[in-house]
Design a protein that fits this description.
With about 60 residues, the chain is of the alpha+beta class. It has one domain: Orthogonal Bundle (Transferase(Phosphotransferase), domain 1). The chain contains two helices and four strands. The protein has a two-stranded antiparallel sheet. A hairpin with a 5-residue loop joins β2 and β3. The longest helix has 7 residues. The protein is flat and about 40 Å long. It starts with a helix and ends with a helix.
């Protein structure tokens, strides 16, 4: 639901991994670390920059 909400606001996280998902004291899941997040505007349909944690990327993406 959280990712769906971000996408509805035209925000992409771009570094979603287990280390960036926490459980708050209230028991709800929290998505953290928005350092690589990007807001798309009306002129952009997608993000094309390379970013993320190399350990979680496909080998062909790291080789680029």
């Amino acid at each position: 639901m959280a990712i769906g909400y971000l996408h509805s606001k035209e925000i992409i996280h771009r570094d979603l991994k287990l280390e960036n998902i926490m459980i708050g004291a209230d028991g709800y899941i929290k998505i953290i670390d928005y350092g690589l997040a990007k807001r798309l505007d009306e002129t952009e349909e997608e993000a094309v920059t390379y970013c993320g944690t190399p350990e979680y990327l496909a080998p062909e993406m790291v080789d680029r």
